[in-house]
Amino acid sequence: xxxxxxxxxxxxxxxxxxxxxxxxxxxxxxxxxxxxxxxxxxxxxxxxxxxxxxxxxxxxxxxxxxxxxxxxxxxxxxxxxxxxxxxxxxxxxxxxxxxxxxxxxxxxxxxxxxxxxxxxxxxxxxxxxxxxxxxxxxxxxxxxxxxxxxxxxxxxxxxxxxxxxxxxxxxxxxxxxxxxxxxxxxxxxxxxxxxxxxxxxxxxxxxxxxxxxxxxxxxxxxxxxxxxxxxxxxxxxxxxxxxxxxxxxxxxxxxxxxxxxxxxxxxxxxxxxxxxxxxxxxxxxxxxxxxxxxxxxxxxxxxxxxxxxxxxxxxxxxxxxxxxxxx
Amino acid sequence: xxxxxxxxxxxxxxxxxxxxxxxxxxxxxxxxxxxxxxxxxxxxxxxxxxxxxxxxxxxxxxxxxxxxxxxxxxxxxxxxxxxxxxxxxxxxxxxxxxxxxxxxxxxxxxxxxxxxxxxxxxxxxxxxxxxxxxxxxxxxxxxxxxxxxxxxxxxxxxxxxxxxxxxxxxxxxxxxxxxxxxxxxxxxxxxxxxxxxxxxxxxxxxxxxxxxxxxxxxxxxxxxxxxxxxxxxxxxxxxxxxxxxxxxxxxxxxxxxxxxxxxxxxxxxxxxxxxxxxxxxxxxxxxxxxxxxxxxxxxxxxxxxxxxxxxxxxxxxxxxxxxxxxxxxxxxxxxxxxxxxxxx
Lengths: 327, 344
Fold this sequence. Notes:
The complex is a heterodimer.
Chain A: H1 4-16, E1 20-27, E2 36-40, E3 81-86, H2 88-99, E4 108-112, H3 121-128, E5 136-140, E6 143-148, E7 151-156, H4 157-160, H5 163-166, E8 178-179, H6 193-199, H7 203-216, H8 222-226, H9 251-264, H10 274-278, H11 285-300
Parallel strand pairs in A: 1-3, 3-4, 4-8
Antiparallel strand pairs in A: 1-2, 5-6, 6-7
Chain B: E1 3-7, H1 11-16, E2 21-29, E3 32-37, E4 63-70, E5 77-78, E6 86-92, H2 94-107, H3 114-121, E7 123-128, E8 154-158, E9 162-167, H4 170-178, E10 182-183, H5 186-201, H6 212-215, H7 226-229, H8 237-240, E11 248-255, E12 258-265, H9 286-305, H10 315-319, H11 326-335
Parallel strand pairs in B: 2-6, 6-7, 7-8
Antiparallel strand pairs in B: 1-9, 1-10, 2-3, 4-5, 4-12, 8-9, 11-12
């Protein structure tokens, strides 16, 4: 259980340091079942921070979102650190970003938040309906207790957990400078049952399924932009010269976009589930990524975002790597 | 105009009776709703709140062909929409219909846009009054409401077993008669009025827009924007799903020797939107882009067209993955102290 007083105290200490520029965490949202990501710049703001089952977002996404503008002549670049609060799943993004040298380890301060699972907004909406006030959520044993418009409601934890939490194997951060609470016991296991289920479809059925899903896509790129691993300064789908993907939306271009993204994330996706959470038209994006994740695991015994010392999968070579697809 | 009604279990017959119209109504793919042409009248339902994608796409599609061309030829083949077929937009929410009245000010301004205008002119709008507004609806703050008639030709009230239809224009009246609707009695009118009053009470969120259009320009360089832009993903959700956002990009697309000039939704939230050929970007960070989105809606547009380019449908709030809440931004803008103008 995370004590918010301790979390805020630690955040305040970090924000007060001269070598820290900003701290990324969670604060109360303006309505409904989700918190808002918080980007704090001053120790006086530390009391805005929260941690509870509404804190679904991955703060690691925001480390790489910050624009790096050219430094005006005569000024020094701002080399102060960025501090970030991470749950176990979020920490895998930091690990993978470090593996890929997106930034250096001493450029970030990681405050680890052991987590016992967050609530899926869509599941909660179906169970309790919508509200225009922020909802408070507490975990009590195998239940989540909600305060919705002043009324206390309860729901089974197993039915309300985000999918990523149901199969969570890493509730404790894998990289941190300091933990804000004691580590928690691991409860989940991942047998890729969802991928098995998906693979039961025949190729024509799969094609029909994805055609319908991708036909909904409005190419808002929220899945790409929220992804902590999609931090390229120039993305292949928005490149204009040469243009690899058309800007027009149709099932063909939309499919090209999603397939490109799935390929570019193979061996890199850390399964925080943010892409699927943010999609305004409910495309089950993680299904594609999880298929790639399992293939990478089975073919190369590789799992991204778990070892800071690892080499990125696609930039290391092992003579024992399978090559059946060539023969 | 007239007052009509029909039994809700006759919905498919009523819609199916219109042989001369292309009918558009909300259709679901999974949990996602957007307006589609009705192929089977029995699929039409009133069981929805707001569509995920607004019906602006019926006038201004995500992607549309402007004209076609062929390499080596000098003539082009225009692709202006065919207006011979009348279109009926069935079940549009009052906020989304009001949005058309705002967007058409722009599309009929300096260069009238035939693509938007032809579709708009050939469309008859049958609205569906809201009985259950969603949590982030704030239409009443922008001059709309669950029973607002702006932009509509007729407004329907789902009264349970009966649907009351109030026609507002001649076009609406013509369609109601073509549907073979019977005349409504006072009981339906009263029930509709009661429903509207009840729905008004269910709208929880609001903003007093007084003074905002005048104040926003004074906050141009104010740091308060960063409270929101620091967590902005620069994605297109808020603008693509906005019923009044109307920006587009134009691209030429080629297949061997045949090509088309197409336009597609564009958004000021993408960095490419303002990227110059030189590589310079006048809106280099999310701060400038967030400021532009809000200022365009609540300051630049009203300055030019005397109306705020927002109808309070709440989609930008509902779908923002990082809880950037336009009502929160507007409230904070009212509290922010305008910095004194810099003097030389």
